[in-house]
Amino acid sequence: MSSGLYQRTTAQRHGVVHTLVAANLSFTLVAVFAWPQLLPWLEPALYWAAGYQAGPSSSNMMHAPLLFVWVGPAICGFLGWLLVKFGKPELAGPVAAFPVVYAVCVAVVMYLELGA
């Protein structure tokens, strides 16, 4: 049996990384342009995860922790794309996957802790 059967090709690795980069940049664009619609769903989880209390200017997307909603995926998406361009797809994958994994972990922990 060929060992190539079990190894991913370069195109397959790049495809996964490009999908993650596109997901990060797409979420960033949605978060920036649909901010008022996303805020009611995201605000409680973000303030809970960050341990902040919502203040009078809590709906401003330029203040922490709401800043992390769009800056994190934007930075990780850009770094993932840059690493692919410089020939380091093995590093680009974890960088581009970080916002997705972090969001899922926060959602699971919040669900378990709040007993929802």
Structure summarized in a few sentences:
73% of the residues lie in helices and 0% in strands. By secondary structure, it is an all-alpha fold.
Strand content: under 5%
What would the principal axes of the Cα set say about the shape? globular
Tell me the Rg in angstroms: 17 Å
- Poorly predicted regions are none
What is the count of structural domains?
A: 1
Largest sheet: none
For this entry, what is the oligomeric state of its chains? single chain
- The tally of helices reads 4
Q: Mean pLDDT, as a whole number?
A: 79
Number of strands: 0
The percent range for helix content is over 70%
| Structural class assignment | mainly alpha
User: What distance separates the N and C termini?
Assistant: 49 Å
Compressed to H and E, one letter per element, the order equals HHHH
Care to describe what's here?
This protein is mostly helical and 116 residues long. The mean pLDDT is 79. 73% of the residues lie in helices and 0% in strands. The chain has one domain. The longest helix has 26 residues, at 89-114.
